[in-house]
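Components:
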Amino acid sequence: MNAATTRTVRTAKKAVARKRTSSRLATPVEKKSAAKSAQAKRTKPAAAAPAIVHVPKTLTEFMAQAWLMEVEAAQRYNEFADAMEMHNNRDVATMFRTMAGYETRHADAIMVEMGWTEFPPVTPRSGDWPGAEGPETAPGDAVHYLMQPWHALTLALASERRAEAFFVELARAANVDSVRRAAQELAAEEREHVELVLKWMKKVPPPDSDWENDPDPPRDMD
Amino acid sequence: MEPRTDKPARTGAPPSRRREAGAAHSISIALAGSGGSGVMTAGTLLIAAAAKAGWYGLMVRTSGPQIRGGEAAALVRLGRHPVDTLDDAFDVLLAIDWQNVNRFVDEIPLTDRSVVIGDADEGAAPEVFTRSGARQIALPFKKTAKDIKGSWTNMVALGVAGALAGLPMGALETALRESWKRDAALLDANLEALAKGFAAGGGIVGVRSIPAGIPGRGRRWVISGNEAAGLGAIRGGIRFVAAYPITPATELLEWMAPALARVGGTLLQAEDELASVNMIIGASYGGVPSLTATAGPGLALMTEGIGLAVGAEIPIVVVDVMRGGPSTGIPAKSEQSDLSFAVSGLHGDAPRLVLAPTSIADCVATTQWAVHLAETLQAPAIVLSDQFLGQSRAIIERPADIAFAGKRVTAAANTPDYRRYADTESGVSPMAVPGTPGVVYTADGLEHNEGGTPSSNARDHDVQLDKRARKLERFDYGAMWADVEGDGDSAVITFGSSTAAVREGVARAGETGARLRLIAIRLLAPAQPEQLAAALQGVARVLVVEQNHGAQLFRYLRAMYDLPGKPASYHRPGPLPLRPGELAKAILLWCGR
Amino acid sequence: MSDAIVTTLRTAAMYKSAYKPIWCPGCGDYSVLSSLTKALAMIAVPPEMVAVVSGIGCSSRIPAYTTCYGFHGVHGRALPAATGLKVARPELTVVVTGGDGDGYSIGGNHFLHACRRNVDLTYIVMDNHVYGMTKGQPSPTTEPDWDSKLSPGGTGVRPFNPLVIALASGANFVARAFAGDPNGTAAIIAEAIRHPGFSFVEVLSPCITFRPEQRAWKELAHPAPVTATDDPARAAHRIMTDDGFNIGVLFAGRRVPYPIPTGKAQCTPADLETEFAP
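Structure:
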């Protein structure tokens, strides 16, 4: 019974490759100079090129994979939105709900473009991501109950960048024309998303320096 | 630094009414907000400032089910006299935001004389609060804090609340300074926010004010019931504690962990309550006064162990910080519903001590007394505290040191013909401490003869049952068994955290001319028929008041005592506290006025 | 072994109830809830045929977040309740959930005996090395030097090794999973449910509130370098010498599960009277 094991092999390898800080939030939360470095990074894709585990052989297979990526990203954003609502972080809850909406629209667009109804005809495989989860799925521990809208956008930015990098690599690795073209198109779309998020970030104030400060102690329940 | 003077008359205010008696000397403020808004901290600082200004006060916490970031409210009552209970309603509800604050509507009753203050940017106050007819005011909490770089919204709220309470600014500043643990540079910003809030609060008129006075001369403490019980235990001589976390007792154990170490004691974290109770029995068998603290579900697990302590005559103290029951119940809310269980929940004929502190301050003395009694009588003592006492903070006078004269009677080395369970007159037989030569014995939960050897013999069983009952019944507990106040032919009997609300209810009812006695029982088991008879001299009727569904104290008293007339019961379960007004009404109805 | 993501996406939603979890944002348990519902969808068992049994703690809140039958019992006693349920109603799929405090501390005794009894149950422990719900006390898997209010300076006591204890006690399936890999965890849980006898899955599920340093687990978790074995001694040796972060199925045994009587009556109560006739 090795499917579970082999899937997690990739998880681990990619995990080791990524650099993480030990700060409260994972990578998406950057220091105060983040705005500046975000500017600098604008024209470049994400730093580390993801290793492509499985190269789809048909367009159908590839688009099913892309569809799954959007759906999983939407699920994660909805989960975040629920958690934020439960913790009275209304503004961020709304943002995550909006992001979930965008991802769902992207997934629906793929369905429409491919002429599919309800679900792709081919089953995409979850084990074919470079990391443990889809490149566009925000990591489950990258949130904080006091996070501010700026943090949510940083998360989204990182997700879109990862997605773009994934498609760029896939396009490079693809050996079927239709797949390569589709990958390039989707890479370009993700690039647009990156730009949109950057634009959105301009309208949102940077977080307060003590954003994660909660003077009150935790409550015990059961 | 000056005490606030009385407010000038103003126009547009609701017509003044005859104030309810007893209410004029305090002000009640609720601070509410959601995660990160820091209302608990603001409430804590408000209490600290009041203490510095020589006032008394009480703060009760309440919150949603989230561990962090949930909606929360600090319910504060301040006054010139000791405050041990919440009032009927709040004079001020101050909300930093309204997210899910409507959850607290039952805990924050308002009247048309109340003031509801919210942030203009957070929307209107929920209808559940405004339907009281309370006056609504909007203040820019968030904006004020934002305009002062590095300051927090809750400091603005604190300032407003402090001004409304009539606290001197100096006390608020000092409280903030002394509590400040973060970057010194931010302190000034927050002092400024505090000042801005204070100024804004000063501009609000029509809130009840308490007459100002001079700061008290006594030594005041700010303490929670859990901490007070821990201190009482250490004063009583406890030097071994076994701990298993459970809401709402965990804080008592967490306070004791370092405190006990400092006085040379030990705290051991156990794997569960079965282990905890047996650990303290073991340590006590070894000669060290021992204690554990738990809540209802944990006490349920400990019963077999407590029975062992009864049978083997080993002193232990178990603090039960009562919460909503039965079963998992309502863990973060208070209720007085473990009484029946405490007084009778052991298999066999198993007499034990049951005590209940009557206030946060009384947690010190009652727990200390419980240790003293357990050690003297070589029996288990259950101390019935509850979530309201345990997790609320009060400003109290420093509790006086009480020297209890008694202690564990131990066997001298090489006592000839030593019998551990000798049938003495008092029922207390000297206990050999391991390490003492010549008086070795085996402690046993099995019924035994005087020497401790297991026995199924009828006479031995009789002798030992009598001994274990007699030692508790014959002991002279003195005046601490209950607080008896007032005079008259109508007596109100209660216990535990309800005492303060009953006392205030009795006082208010008394203003109509009713002559009422209050009896707050501190020693629930063993029953004290002679003492109660003395306390009920001249009483024609009794009303028993308690916070549980099954009228547990009422039934217990009727079973164990002769009560005059037709005893009446006023009871309701948690999670909401009994309030003085409802009790005053019930009392007046009951005594026919 | 199904990899039908489309099916699981459609049907995983079927197993999630409308109640939103109260867990702190970022808690590993969100991922485990997802994994559990995905696993149930992969197995395609109807929600009403599944019972999720728990004790007390943050992770024990899971039953209400599913559309399965739920049992939120008392602290540490989920396993006996689940055992009673499964033996009385063997056709149900019984999943037991809880945390390390609930399961290994107060529940420790029941853990030993549930493994020994080897009833066909699946026990998922969300291990975050802390008592979360009571605000941060050490648990049996906490490092000995972890400072806390209740045990200042650390307990000084060796942490519990639940996987080896499960093996030694008789569990038939032992796996370690990681909340940072929800799909991998889903596959492990599905396999655990399918495997006969007592299946134990320890999920490393970080508590970001009381153990924020556990974010580092995503760097440390890695797949077990060997495939599952059916030899308990070999599995035990591997686990006792691993780094605590080997992810995967570590033991899939062939121990005979507890034989649950069929429940078919062979006689009537009246027939029992014959023994009393002299």
